[in-house]
Amino acid sequence: MRRLIWRIFWFAMAAVFVPGLFAVLSVGRIPVPAVVLIGGLLLGSGLYGAIYWGLIPHLRTLDELTQFLQKIPGQRFTQRLYHDPLSEAAPFIRALNQLLDQIEIQMNIGEEYRQRLISLLENMASGVMLLDPRGRILLVNAMAERLLGSSRKELIGRQHIAASHHYELGQLIDRCLQSGQRFKQELTVYYPQERVLDVHLSPIARPGGGKGGVVVVMHDITEIRRLERLRSEFVANVSHELRTPLTAVKGFAETLLDGAMHEPETLQAFLEIILHESDRLHRMIGELLDLSKIESGQVRLDFRRIHLKEHLEAVLRLVHVEAEERQLTLQLHVEDDPVIEADPDRFRQILLNLLSNAVTYTPPGGKIELFAESRPDGAWVRVRDTGIGIPKEDLPHLFERFYRVDKARSRESGGTGLGLAIVKHLVEAHHGRIEVESELGSGSQFSVFFPARQPDMPE
Ligand SMILES: Nc1ncnc2c1ncn2[C@@H]1O[C@H](COP(=O)(O)OP(=O)(O)OP(=O)(O)O)[C@@H](O)[C@H]1O
Ligand SMILES: [Mg+2]
């Protein structure tokens, strides 16, 4: 607009100047020689030309430059100013464009670092929170949101005490802000769920000195603590379980040495007890080793295509004698002779464990049935008994190591409480699943699903 006004103004000036001069001179009756007239005309056009081609382009360039510079912040330094290479302003505009190139490169590098930092923070397995020297939350990553149970919106810009639900964490932050010391502490939080956090707090120094705030890094160690607790419970359980038969062996051996060995009947009875207890000890150690090998993936399963009927009959033969002694009826029901891919020895081990439980925990006169049912993707094998049954509250713990419903009775029967833990691991190694239904006093049914195909078996 300014440019247009200028142009009109100078045109008007030039248009008025020469005829005006001529008119003034004519009115004053001053003879105007042709040379003067032509000279005046040339001067007028020269003046116009000088102003139009000399001054206006500069003004125009300045005008464009101002408009361009005003627009830069919104365009993130990506625009450049185009110019006439022959104009006087060309070197200046070139220098300006080069400066803009540099700024754009620096801005891109800065943006790239920012993006890297954001993705690093967001994908970290630890929670990170940054606070200013007054305890205001400046930054939280995704994991911190999850651990603290609050969203960024609720946290950022607010005092940590007001924003978070964790009083103890707030106290640690205040301690770090006041002392300027770096430290770590384990903390149990109860919101949004119970968790054990390993919290590291470090003061941040400002480049010029002085307090810059605090950075809080939180690791979720709930699972580690749970496993540690399980391990120590397991060690305590193993020691207890091993000590029971050992105490019996030691006690009876001492009694024999104290003189009981001279009575043949007592000697025979005590030696039988010692043999029974050491058998149990031997079996328990064997099963523990087996379980630990299966759990740690050291046992390689030898998968083959097997016909269930043949293998189920073989397992039934193994428990036949014991079942007869206990006056139990054994029945096998096989539908369509299912074929599955399984390790034959481990398959028998699973079924033998379930059948021996059924035999052990079914009173004389009871019935034990073994079913095999074909499914499009595998087969169900069920062991059903009319035994003592299992209380509902014990069902979720049945597959834990050393878990026994009635400890005294199970120990009496020589049980170690490891059988079902082994069964569960073996079934999982076959990519199958195990379910149990039971009615106290009426009987139990253990059902195992075996998939038809194993993922690592060649065609
Ligand atoms: N068919 C069943 N009927 C009733 N209770 C059962 C049955 N099967 C298992 N149980 C209960 O589950 C517990 C755990 O069984 P598991 O087979 O793991 O151990 P166990 O039989 O005591 O010892 P072992 O390791 O020698 O098999 C048993 O002690 C018993 O209380
Ligand atoms: Mg058992």
Structure commentary:
The chain is α+β, with helices and mostly antiparallel strands. Helices cover 54% and strands 18% of the residues. The protein contains 13 helices and 12 strands. The strands form 3 sheets. The chain has a 5-stranded antiparallel sheet, sandwiched between helices. Strands 7-9-10-12-11 form a 5-stranded mixed sheet, with helices on one face. Strands 6-8 form a two-stranded antiparallel ribbon. Strand 9 and strand 10 (378-385) form a beta hairpin. The longest helix is centred in the N-terminal third of the chain and has 42 residues, at 34-75. The protein is elongated. The model has no long low-confidence stretch (mean pLDDT 88). The structure holds adenosine-5'-triphosphate and magnesium ion.
Helix and strand content put the structural class at alpha+beta
> What strand line-up does the widest sheet have?
2-1-5-4-3
Largest sheet: 5 strands, antiparallel
- Beta fraction: 15-25%
Spell out the helices and strands N to C.
HHHEEHHHHEEEHHEHEEHEEHHEE
- Cα radius of gyration in angstroms: 46 Å
Question: Would you identify the regions where 5 or more consecutive residues have pLDDT less than 50?
Answer: none
Task: Count all strands and give the number.
Answer: 12
Overall morphology: elongated
- What's the average pLDDT? 88
Distance between the termini: 83 Å
Question: What are the bound molecules?
Answer: adenosine-5'-triphosphate, magnesium ion
| Helix proportion range | 40-55%
Number of helices, counting only DSSP H or I runs of 4 residues or more: 13
